[in-house]
Amino acid sequence: MHCCPLTINVDGINMDIKPKVISLGHPRMILGLSWLQEHNPDIDWENGTLQWRQHPWKQK
User: Fold this and answer.
1) CA angle (31, 27, 1) in 5-degree steps
2) Residue 58 and residue 45: Cα distance in Å, rounded?
3) Sign of the CA dihedral 2, 33, 30, 8?
4) CA-CA distances (angstroms) from residue 45 to 28, 32, 49, 50, 52?
5) Phi and psi dihedrals of 49, rounded to 5?
6) Sign of the C-alpha dihedral, residues 13, 18, 24, 30?
7) Could you count the other beta carbons within 10 Å of the beta carbon of residue 50?
8) Are 3 and 22 in contact, with CB atoms under 8 Å apart?
9) Is the dihedral of CA 32, 25, 9, 51 positive or negative?
10) What pTM value is reported for the model?
11) 1, 20 in Cβ contact below 8 A?
């Protein structure tokens, strides 16, 4: 496992992240607890979707 800083685009919004990278066997992304706490999205676990409660650029 290693850390690899990169920029991701989520719903048209660029975010700089420092994910811990591990091999999962095929392309997947796991959003860590720190990312989820920082951005606090609404997650529909049943349908596997994520929506913003507020726009990320309108931080508290």
Assistant:
1) 65
2) 25
3) negative
4) 16, 15, 7, 8, 14
5) -120, 160
6) negative
7) 15
8) no
9) negative
10) 0.48
11) yes
pLDDT level of residue 34 (50, 70, 90 thresholds): confident
Token reading at 46: 């049943």
Model confidence at 60, pLDDT cuts 50, 70, 90, reads: very low
Q: Is the pLDDT of residue 44 over 80?
A: yes
User: Would you state the structure tokens that stand for residue 38, as one six-digit string?
Assistant: 């920082």
Do 59 and 52 meet the contact criterion of CB atoms below 8 Å apart?
no
22 pLDDT higher than 70: no
